Amino acid sequence: MLRDEEGALPAALEALRGLPRTGRRGALVIDRIDGRPAAESPLFPAFREAGYRLDYGGLIDIRPDAGRR
Length: 69
Fold this sequence. Notes:
By secondary structure, the chain is of the alpha+beta class. The chain has two helices and five strands; from the N terminus they run αβββαββ.
């Protein structure tokens, strides 16, 4: 995993949960990270640990309250 000396990565992953959700599923789908497919990114394990899961379209947040603030 990449170095995160200042704790910016967990804060960024949490901030993504605050983005509005649209579409039929009401989910934010992250299909690419830094130009790579999400599952091939070195950040993939951090997303998994933060509660995102791999879906057919990319990474999605599996928490039921995600995006509902």
